[in-house]
Design a protein that fits this description.
- This protein is of the alpha/beta class and 141 residues long.
- 41% of the residues lie in helices and 16% in strands.
- It is built from six helices and four strands, in the order αβαβαβαβαα.
- Helix 1 crosses helix 2.
- It is found in: Cytoplasm.
- It comes from Rynchops niger (Black skimmer).
- Keywords: Cytoplasm.
């Protein structure tokens, strides 16, 4: 993600609108219409504003203990009709349950808690993570 990790700071993603526009452009450049967006941790800063502004462009979203969930009100989440799989590890006692508190207001959500997994549940228990993800994807067909 621009501005994170080892990437240089990027002015284009300094604002919420800039991050929405960035993701929109990535999808356009890749020729993706209505993708399913999997969004772990820090990518929530991109995915959540995109979901709230352009959720109709997504076939589904899988927030994996994302950051930034408290930046939005329950009423904002309640307006979103995008199918959602809220995922987190059972040993993620901080960000996973915190994200669930906000994301549970999404009307079309399911929750999957990955056993024996921490914040990076996709690394700690990839088998159960992928089982939950594939089940969600099959349900979208």
């Amino acid at each position: 993600m621009p501005g994170y990790g080892d990437s240089p700071p990027a002015e284009m993603v300094a604002t919420v609108q800039g991050r929405v526009a960035f993701l929109d452009r990535v999808f356009q450049e890749l020729g993706m219409w209505r993708p399913v967006l999997v969004s772990p941790s820090m990518s929530g800063r991109f995915a959540l504003p995109f979901l709230l502004a352009r959720g109709d462009r997504l076939a589904g979203i899988v927030p994996v203990a994302p950051v930034g969930t408290k930046d939005y009100a329950a009423e904002q989440y309640q307006q979103v009709q995008t199918p959602t799989l809220i995922l987190y590890g059972d040993r993620d006692t901080n960000l996973g349950p915190q994200a669930l508190q906000s994301l549970r207001h999404l009307p079309r959500h399911r929750v999957a808690v990955v056993p024996d997994a921490g914040h990076a549940c996709y690394l700690d228990n990839p088998e159960d993570f992928h089982r939950a993800l594939l089940g969600f994807l099959r349900q979208l067909k």
